[in-house]
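Why should sequence recovery work at all? Because a backbone constrains its sequence more than one might expect. Tight turns favour small or flexible residues, buried strands favour hydrophobic ones, and helices have their own preferences. The token representation captures these environments compactly. In the example below, the structure is given first.
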């Protein structure tokens, strides 16, 4: 009896220590995000003074410096929302598929949303922000179902490698279709090509407000799915034995991820690899418990996207590099490293 009590005390002590460490990491990530947001507002192709920054934050745009800061504020907010959405969506997709290679870009979800928006613009003349979002969400959902269906064919079902290959092939095919759809429309081809790179430059409050309700619903569904994802990580048979409806759990969590991916792609374009890199880094910090992993992935995604945006403004002054290019430069080596790891079959 005494030995059991001692073991129980040790377990409780270990859990408390782990939670304290996670809370410390959480405080650190929040502080880093706040610092990056401040940096995003103050750093750019034009140098600004502190007086311009404070005046712009108060709503004044009396000179070029204040106007520059006023443009950076919605850009920073969009980076915060989009990065959080993509980081969280990546963690959810990895949990749903138990696939360490899962990512909105790699699985073709972002490109499916992109193709749907382009078709809507060229063939159906959609113009409103709300229409872009609905078309993007529909395209993301269809792409996710298509890739999962293709990856499930054959022996072994939907293995990580088969899903990654199906997603990569689908992304390439959809990218080609985007070019084919846009090619006859020289009047809009330039704007669509720029949007396809993925970026948050030119953000305005008019672009951000319509997407917030979709992101809010996606965040809520994804975060609520944390317990379901923990059970799915134990395997389908164990999850069923514990009373979880596996199909419903996967479908509900996937809906949250699709909403986040589709809404973000509609306003920013397809930004790849962020949803792959961030969950892996967060998993090293806080472990595999999705109750911690999901919020950490959201915060980490925001940090990475804002940091990439700030770096893109600095390295090519007076021009800028879109965040889609920088996240690809960061994510591609990580993707190769994960693929080359042995025993990379499931989470």
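From this structural description, the recovered sequence reads:
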């Amino acid at each position: 009896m005494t030995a059991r009590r001692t073991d129980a005390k040790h377990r409780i002590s270990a859990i408390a220590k782990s939670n304290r460490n996670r809370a410390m990491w959480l405080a650190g990530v929040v502080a880093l995000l706040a610092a990056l947001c401040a940096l995003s507002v103050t750093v750019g192709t034009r140098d600004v003074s502190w007086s311009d920054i404070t005046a712009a934050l108060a709503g004044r745009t009396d000179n070029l410096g204040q106007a520059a800061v006023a443009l950076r504020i919605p850009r920073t907010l969009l980076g915060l929302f989009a990065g959080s959405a993509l980081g969280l969506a990546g963690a959810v997709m990895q949990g749903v598929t138990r696939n360490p290679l899962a990512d909105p870009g790699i699985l073709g979800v972002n490109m499916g949303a992109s193709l749907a928006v382009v078709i809507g613009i060229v063939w159906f003349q959609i113009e409103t922000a709300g229409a872009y979002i609905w078309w993007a969400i529909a395209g993301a959902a269809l792409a996710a179902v298509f890739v999962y269906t293709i990856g499930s064919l054959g022996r072994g079902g939907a293995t990580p490698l088969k899903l990654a290959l199906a997603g990569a092939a689908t992304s390439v095919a959809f990218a080609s279709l985007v070019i084919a759809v846009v090619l006859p429309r020289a009047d809009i081809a330039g704007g669509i090509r720029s949007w396809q790179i993925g970026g948050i430059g030119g953000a305005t409050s008019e672009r951000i407000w319509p997407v917030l309700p979709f992101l809010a619903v996606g965040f809520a569904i994804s975060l609520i799915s944390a317990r379901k994802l923990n059970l799915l990580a134990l395997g389908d048979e164990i999850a069923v034995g514990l009373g979880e409806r596996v199909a419903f759990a996967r479908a509900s969590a996937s809906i949250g991820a699709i909403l986040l991916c589709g809404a973000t792609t509609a306003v920013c374009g397809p930004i790849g690899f962020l949803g792959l890199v961030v969950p892996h880094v967060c998993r090293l910090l806080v472990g595999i418990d999705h109750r911690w992993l999901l919020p950490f992935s959201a915060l980490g995604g925001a940090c990475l996207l804002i940091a990439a945006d700030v770096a893109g403004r600095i390295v090519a002054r007076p021009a800028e590099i879109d965040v889609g290019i920088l996240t690809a430069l960061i994510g591609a080596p990580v993707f190769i490293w994960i693929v080359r790891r042995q025993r990379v079959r499931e989470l």
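A few observations help interpret the result. The CA atoms of residues 77 and 238 lie 41 Å apart.
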